[in-house]
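User: I'm putting together notes for a lab meeting next week and I want to include a structural view of one of the chains we've been expressing. I don't have a solved structure, so I'd like a prediction I can at least talk through. The sequence is below, exactly as it appears in our construct file.
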Amino acid sequence: MVTRTLPLALIAVIAFVVGASVGAPGSPEKEAASHFARGWASGNFAAMYEQLNEASRTATSLKDFTAAYKEAEEVATLRSLEPGSPHDPTSLEGSTVVPVPLTVSTVAFGRTEDELELPFAEGGVEWGPSLVFPGLRSGEHLESQIELAPRAAILGNDGTPLAEGPADEREHPLGTAAIDVTGEVGSPAEEDMAALARHGFAPDTPVGISGLEQAFNTRLAGKPGGSLLAVGETGGAPRVLAESKPEAGAPVKTTIDPELQETAVAALAGRAGGIAVLDARNGDVRALAGQAFSAPQPPGSTFKIITTTAALQKGVVSLDDEFEIVDGVNVGGRFISNANGEFCGGTFRQAFAESCNADFAPLGPQIGNDALVGTAERFGFNSPPTLYSPRIVREVGPPESTIPEEIGEEIDLGVSAIGQGEVLATPLEMASVAQTIGNGGVREPTSIVNNKKLRPDAKPVRVMSKKLADELTELMVGVVTEGTGTAGAIPEAQVAGKTGTAELGPKPGQENQENPVQIKDAWFSAFAPANKAKLAIGVLLIEAEAAGGEVAAPAAAEVLSAGLSG
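Assistant: Thanks for the context. Below is the predicted structure for the 566-residue chain, given as structure tokens.
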């Protein structure tokens, strides 16, 4: 039981349709009561304040008057208020009183109907703190006793609990392996407290603060219950103004494969970065480890999948085109070197397999801004990840993978074409890119939930033709069989992949050296089997100790091997 007390206040109201009468002619008190009630119903506290007599306005400022009602709203967990028509004035203990019927709906305490007795004196409402809620008497204030509902479980796709138990004693049967998906329960951020209070949660109530625990907090937590009380200043038994029983939360069943989730977390091995695994056939998320969709980084040469798609669609290159073997190229007045200053070239197949910057950077200007950006957007860039329903996505605001809509000069297009500059992506996005190729050119939504009402409503997007997807598959197979991604090969199936190594600048202390050691992010984007894809994966290792083909590809191989061995 959580007890909450706030000083004599209640009710910032949601606008509600009101049918209150303006009163009979010759009854200024009744008319004033109607204006007061209608102002309350619409949340117009200034209109309410105008009905107070001069003595009340002198004693209580509009600011304090408004704050009292807004603070008290949290105690009552007010949802809506509907006034009826004021009754005729009556005399009560020598004062003129106008009774106003009020129907109040609350989140935690149900619905209550009572009369607010508005006292009048000296030409207006004689306001006092007991007027903040119908049924309060002079000298009483509001208190709430909140009873929390049992928090529901988060489940894997086979029903295995990923998180279960009470909010303050949440358990994770898979240990830390599932926390990257489920998120955690804890104390809410200060800026969230007011919204949570309106849902019946006191400030010290544990709530979801990350992952699915946050995204589906309201569903998992259920509806609090308890009692709304009128408490006298002199003690004694409080009076119950409204009460209800808590309603248990509903579970969230995910698309996560528990065994694959454990494997992905093990493959990340505590390193900074993330791993996302998708069902290549329908896009559903099978595993998320680390910062799989929360920290967009430059995708490096994995972005060349997108550049190649745009170039082949526009006809600026073909698979058999020949390129000069060089160690770099001048684009827009700037020399862009190959990784480690290596010489590469030959056919486009070889250039893709060896991730040759000298061949890909010039493609950016040839493709052009609109085609490059448009292709990236068909792959999902510049849009929120489709993890759950649009309402939940808006509330949680997961980071987008992005590319500038106007990239800039020739050099900027060249740098973007090799996944550097201002291009940013997440492992989830690059797994989705691989899924698109493995699915014959159709990008599927990346849902992480099985519950139909919670799933995204996005439709599949045809990014390219089946023929073009087959050509990309051929190129990605070449990366794993004879190019930079041989460490991504597995015995269970042929992997089609693309390595990436994004350079982020010199390491600290190396800034002024002639050939400084670069901070690097290591990437690998892949799917398998190449001929009939079942799983797609995106791996990112932040500030990695080596290139993508050396460290990200082996991590992907570990996960794909486990996922396809069953």
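A couple of points you could mention at the meeting. The domain at 2-140 is CATH 3.10.450.100 (Nuclear Transport Factor 2; Chain: A,). The chain is about 30% helix and 25% strand.

User: Perfect, that's what I needed.
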